[in-house]
Specification:
The chain is of the alpha+beta class and 160 residues long. It has a domain at 9-113: Aminopeptidase (3-Layer(aba) Sandwich), CATH 3.40.630.30. The chain contains four helices and seven strands, in the order βααβββαβαββ. A seven-stranded mixed beta sheet has the order 1-2-3-4-5-7-6, with helices on both faces. The chain is globular. It starts with 8 loop residues before the first strand and ends with a strand. The relative contact order is 0.15. Pfam families: Acetyltransf_1.
Length: 160
């Protein structure tokens, strides 16, 4: 299990290392280059945009130095998991699962009946990883300008 320092937890109100957070996301998503079309929206992120996002969403982080993060957004019928990023050197060690467990706990505390996320159509290994945690595909979407699906929506129902 992860110790307190590396376990996912809500970012403190005084969190301010937005450059490190952006670097973590870009490093974590780098493997997608050339694999997904259109390119990841991570390329449009800025430190200021991440700071603003944290004002309306729940930012969870892990590690010192920063090794993982996720944004959890409250939707009317779900908790949306966005920008789940694990540093390449920390992947495969259970942090992704730990963040999903945190998302479940937060969703339950907020009275939300499900978790929701989106992943690119090309990233079939991500589909399989989320399916192992109980997510199922619920929709396909196309980015603007594309006539084919470019992402899938996956959900995991939560029960009391």
């Amino acid at each position: 299990m992860h110790d307190l320092l590396t376990a996912p937890h809500r970012a403190p109100a005084q969190f301010s290392d937005w450059k490190a957070l952006l670097s973590l996301i870009l490093d974590s998503f780098a493997y997608m280059e050339g694999r997904i079309d259109p390119p990841s929206s991570a390329h449009r992120l800025t430190p200021d945009a991440l700071s603003a996002r944290a004002e309306t969403e729940h930012l969870y982080i892990a590690g010192s130095p920063l090794t993982a993060c996720a944004f959890f957004a409250e939707q009317p019928d779900a908790l949306y998991i966005g920008k789940l990023a694990i540093a390449p050197a920390a992947q495969g060690k259970g942090l992704g699962r730990a963040f999903l467990i945190e998302a479940e706990s937060l969703a339950r505390s907020l009275g939300l009946p499900r978790l929701r996320l989106e992943t690119r159509i090309e990233l079939t290994q991500n589909h399989a990883a989320f399916a192992r945690f109980g997510f199922t595909q619920t929709a396909e979407k196309a980015h603007p300008g594309f006539s084919r699906p470019t992402s899938i929506t996956m959900e995991k129902p939560l029960f009391p």
